[in-house]
């Protein structure tokens, strides 16, 4: 648990967190924001990433290293995060888009999660 992140959030100093994230991803504010108060469609993803950062007790640079794409460490962390969500939300929600609607192809890490969860659930 990252106490600093919790304090920033509670005191409404999100701009400090967002500035760190911007530097860690090597992007400008308009990567996430339409304007000062409105987010683009990736708002939920950003919130999940801040949550993941807090859970892991690390900063954005651990997974991003100055890029908007994930590093290998970042991909592994994402797999762990998805597995955690899958364990609580069940397989149907994930497979609804990935398999049934064929909207998103599973990448290497997605198949790792799928196979791990099948093993855990005895599928």
Given as residue ranges, the uncertain stretches (5+ residues, pLDDT < 50) are: none
Radius of gyration, in Å, reads 16 Å
What form results from the Cα inertia axes? globular
Portion in strands? under 5%
Terminal-residue CA separation: 33 Å
| Secondary-structure content class | mainly alpha
Instruction: Give the count of structural domains.
Output: 2
Order of helices and strands: HHHHHHH
What is the count of β-strands? 0
Provide key terms for this protein:
mainly alpha; 123 residues; 2 domains; globular; 7 helices
Tell me what the structure shows.
The protein has helices at residues 3-10, 14-25, 43-56, 60-64, 72-89, 91-100, 108-121. It is globular. α5 (72-89) runs parallel beside α7. Helices cover 66% and strands 0% of the residues. It is mainly α. It has 2 domains: 1-69, no CATH class; 72-123, no CATH class.
Briefly summarize what is shown.
By secondary structure, this protein is mostly helical. 66% of the residues lie in helices and 0% in strands.
Q: Secondary structure elements and their pairing?
A:
Elements: H1 3-10, H2 14-25, H3 43-56, H4 60-64, H5 72-89, H6 91-100, H7 108-121
């Amino acid at each position: 648990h990252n106490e600093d992140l919790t304090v920033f959030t509670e005191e409404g100093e999100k701009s400090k967190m967002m500035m760190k994230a911007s530097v860690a991803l090597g992007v400008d504010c308009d990567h996430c924001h339409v304007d000062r108060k409105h987010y683009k469609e990736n708002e939920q993803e950003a919130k999940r990433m801040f949550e993941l950062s807090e859970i892991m007790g690390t900063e954005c640079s651990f997974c991003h290293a100055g890029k908007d794409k994930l590093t290998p460490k970042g991909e592994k962390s994402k797999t762990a995060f998805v597995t955690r969500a899958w364990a609580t939300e069940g397989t149907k929600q994930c497979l609804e888009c990935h398999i049934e609607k064929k909207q998103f192809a599973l990448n290497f890490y997605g198949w790792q999660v799928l196979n791990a969860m099948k093993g855990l659930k005895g599928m």
